[in-house]
Specification:
- It is built from 10 helices and 14 strands.
- It has 305 residues and is α/β, with parallel strands linked by helices.
- The chain has a single domain, classed as Ribokinase (UDP-N-acetylmuramoyl-L-alanine:D-glutamate ligase, 3-Layer(aba) Sandwich), CATH 3.40.1190.
- β12 and β13 form a beta hairpin.
- The protein starts with a strand and ends in a 7-residue tail after the last helix.
- The structure holds adenosine monophosphate.
C-alpha cells in the first residue's frame, strides 16, 4: 500500500558529546521516508527544498525508491536549516539556530497521483498545514500524526481540529501530559484519545513506548543501544518504521500494531548509532529482523506457578 509522507526536509548541524557535523541531510520527512523505505512498497514524499539542495541527497532518496514528484524545489531561497546541540544527558537538546528559509511559506500541494495514498504520515509541521494535507487526500485507511510542545502551546485550536481527523497520534510522554493537562500517563492517554485519535503511541525516549489501541495497552521495551552517537531523527525514524510496516502488511489489528511499534523501535535504535540519517542508508533485511528478535528476547517474562 502507498504511504504519503509530509514534513520537513532539512540540513542539520549537530553537536553531541561524541562529535559534531557541519551540514548533513535531515528533516522529519527525510527520516520517516528513509526508515519506511525498508518496508513500504511505495513512498510519496511531499516537502520543499531550496536552491542549495544537493543532487546527492536527491539521489539518496531516489535510491530508496522514494517518489519525489511532491518535493517542491523553490529557487528563491535555501533549504530549512536547523542546528542543535546535545548534552551528556542525550534526552535534552538545545536548538542553537533555526532558519526556516523556503519552509516558511511551505504550501503542501499533494500531486494527483498521491491523493489515493492509503497510509498518511503527517510529520511534525504546523497543524493547519497537516489539516490542509488531509483536505487533499481521499479516504486513507490510516492517518498518523506527530506533533510537539511548540504547537500544543502555540496553536492549540488548530491542533485540536486536526486531531479530530487523525487515527493514530504519536507523541512523547511530556507532550501527552501537556496536551491532556494531566500528569498520570494512563489518564492522559484516555483524554487524548477522546480528542480524536482512535489509537495513541506515547514514546518514552530511551525507556520504550506505550501503545493504546482498542482496549489494549502494549508496553514496548527500549533497546539497550551501547553506542548512542546522535539521537537526532529517532522520533521520526520510529514513525517511519512503524508506518512502513503497517503499509507493507496492510493490517491494522492490535497484534500487528504491536509488531509495528517494535519495527519502529528497531529502526530508531539503528538511527542513533551514527550521525544524522547515516545509519539508515545501508541497512539490510537480516539486520532489521535480527534486531526485532533481540527486542522479543528483551521482554520475555517468565511464567510463575
Ligand atoms: P527529531 O529528532 O525526531 O525530533 O527530528 C529532528 C529533525 O527535525 C531534524 O532533522 C530537523 O531538521 C527537524 N526539525 C527541527 N526543528 C524543526 C521545525 N521547527 N520544523 C520542522 N522540522 C524541524
Amino acid at each position: 500500500m502507498s504511504l504519503l509522507v509530509v514534513g520537513s526536509v532539512a540540513y542539520d548541524s549537530i553537536e553531541t558529546p561524541f562529535g559534531k557535523t557541519d551540514r548533513i541531510l535531515g528533516g522529519s520527512a527525510t527520516y520517516i521516508s528513509l526508515a519506511a523505505s525498508y518496508f513500504a512498497k511505495k513512498i510519496n514524499l511531499v516537502g520543499v527544498v531550496g536552491k542549495d539542495f544537493a543532487d546527492e541527497d536527491i539521489e539518496l532518496l531516489k535510491s530508496k525508491d522514494v517518489d519525489l514528484e511532491g518535493l517542491q524545489v523553490d529557487d528563491s531561497g535555501n533549504t530549512f536549516f536547523w542546528k542543535g546541540k546535545y548534552h551528556y544527558d542525550l534526552n535534552n537538546r538545545d536548538t542553537l539556530d533555526t532558519q526556516l528559509n523556503v519552509f516558511e511559506h511551505f504550501d503542501p500541494i499533494i500531486p494527483d497521483a498521491y491523493r489515493d495514498s492509503k497510509f498518511v504520515a503527517l510529520g511534525n509541521i504546523e497543524p493547519s498545514l497537516q489539516e490542509k494535507v488531509l483536505d487533499q487526500v481521499s479516504k486513507p485507511d490510516l492517518v498518523v500524526m506527530d506533533t510537539m510542545n511548540f504547537w500544543i502551546e502555540g496553536t492549540p485550536d488548530a491542533l485540536k481540529s486536526t486531531l479530530k481527523r487523525v487515527d493514530l497520534l504519536v507523541i512523547n510522554d511530556s507532550e501527552a501530559r501537556e496536551l491532556a493537562n494531566e500528569p498520570n500517563l494512563i489518564k492522559a492517554a484516555d483524554k487524548v484519545r477522546n480528542m480524536g485519535p482512535d489509537s495513541l503511541i506515547i514514546k518514552k525516549g530511551e525507556h520504550g513506548a506505550l501503545l493504546f489501541t482498542g482496549d489494549e495497552i502494549f508496553s514496548a521495551p527500549a533497546y539497550p543501544v551501547i553506542d548512542i552517537f546522535d539521537p537526532t531523527g529517532a522520533g521520526d525514524t520510529f514513525l517511519g518504521g512503524l508506518l512502513g510496516w503497517l503499509s507493507y502488511t496492510d493490517d491494522l489489528t492490535p497484534t500487528n500494531m504491536r509488531k509495528a511499534v517494535i519495527f519502529g523501535s528497531v529502526m530508531a535504535s539503528f538511527c542513533v548509532e551514527k550521525f544524522g540519517p547515516e545509519r539508515l542508508k545501508d541497512l539490510n533485511e537480516k539486520q532489521i529482523y535480527d534486531r526485532y528478535r533481540e527486542f522479543r528476547e528483551l521482554s520475555q517474562i517468565p511464567e510463575v506457578e
